[in-house]
Design goal:
single chain; 5 helices; 34% helix; globular; binds zinc ion
Length: 257
């Protein structure tokens, strides 16, 4: 566009501005009148205790609201959530930022086996509850975003941390996603850490033992059906890492006692 082409627009704009500003002045005057009328009315109310200039924030003058009963102090009663599930298991609600994808989750079939895993990421040394909760949430997110459309939820039913705490993962009423082609009736227990590169703590092994024994007893699973991930036929994985694998091979003959 040439420079000359701008001139008429500027002139038009200026004259429009003049007429607009004249209209605005008239409008503003009437707003002022309305505003004055409002302040006059307010001034007649007794004890107006709101700051001036904030009328729009105040729902009604005191004189009118004085006899309105106060709103109830609390909402509907909700049963408090237990701090721990049976067996001292920390509920999923303490760490998970989202529930499972209900469109894509299967019910658990009768439990026949238990499988032990490690997390397998870079070594994890933290014992703090908050850091542990965040790490488990990261695992859940990674599983939800896994290749091929992701899993419906974190793949494991339980997670054992470095302090030996036992965390609920996927609820046991749902089939897990932790051993390819062998998830039916298979409880997945994962120990946080990478046991190709680090060693489980004694507390972590005690927590693992406790949970394996609890699941063996609950579902009548014999020690011959307690596996590590790499022991499943067709599995091609280092999971649960050499140090945890060695431990399971020592503990299993004694039924993790
Ligand atoms: Zn595994």
């Amino acid at each position: 566009m040439s420079e000359s082409a701008h001139d008429p627009i500027e002139i038009t704009t200026r004259s429009t501005w003049l007429s607009v500003s004249r209209r605005s002045f008239l409008a503003a005057s009437s707003i002022l009148l309305v505003g004055c009328a409002t302040s006059t009315e307010t001034a007649e109310l007794p004890d107006a205790d709101f700051p001036s200039g904030r009328y729009d924030d105040v729902p009604a003058p005191r004189r009118i609201t004085r006899n309105v009963p106060p709103p109830p102090k609390s909402g509907p009663t909700v049963a408090p959530e237990p701090a721990f599930l049976p067996g001292g298991v920390i509920p999923r609600s303490k760490w998970a930022k989202s529930g499972p994808d209900m469109k894509d989750i299967n019910p658990m079939l009768p439990v026949k086996s238990i499988t032990i895993h490690h997390e397998g990421w870079e070594p994890f040394m933290a014992v703090d509850v908050g850091e542990t909760a965040s790490r488990i949430e990261q695992v859940r997110v990674a599983h939800r975003n896994a290749k091929g459309g992701g899993y419906a939820d974190i793949g494991y039913h339980f997670i054992i941390d470095r302090e030996g705490r036992i965390w609920e993962g996927r609820n046991l009423k749902y089939q897990g996603a932790h051993v390819k082609n062998h998830n039916e009736g298979n409880v997945g227990i994962m120990c946080l850490g990478n046991f190709e590169e680090q060693t489980p703590t004694p507390k972590q092994l005690a927590g693992l033992n406790k949970q394996v024994r609890a699941m063996m007893a609950k579902y009548n699973v014999p020690k011959s059906r307690v596996y590590t991930h790499q022991e499943w036929r067709g599995a091609s994985t280092l999971c649960p890492g050499r140090t945890l694998q060695a431990y399971v091979e020592r503990a299993r003959p004694k039924s993790f006692a």
